[in-house]
Model the fold of this input.
Amino acid sequence: QVQLVESGGGLVQPGNSLRLSCTASGFTFSSYVMGWFRQAPGKEREFVAGISSTGVFRNYADSVKGRVTVSRDNAKQTVYLQMNSLKREDTAVYYCAAERQSPLTAYSATYYGRESSYNSWGQGTQVTVSS
Done:
């Protein structure tokens, strides 16, 4: 069955960097779009970044644009989230999500940013930004 496992979270000081990974199994990874979302304490889950099946299309939430890079390695069935210049407000549980790519939505930023676009989710990894 579809499985997504996030890793790489932890405690980091403000201004530092962290790279999250999400390793997939149980489906044809190279045919799926991938998304990263996060949920801070007491807040709703929000979109962070998305990437198309080949990586040619990527989009980001305004709150992280310029500080975060999403990438993928289809041979390793892994998607990454490189986060730089971390802020306290980046503290959250980070989730990866997957959905089979459709030619109709592959380049739609709105599609990537919507939770309901994805049917498969990981369990999340905690990122805490604190001094």
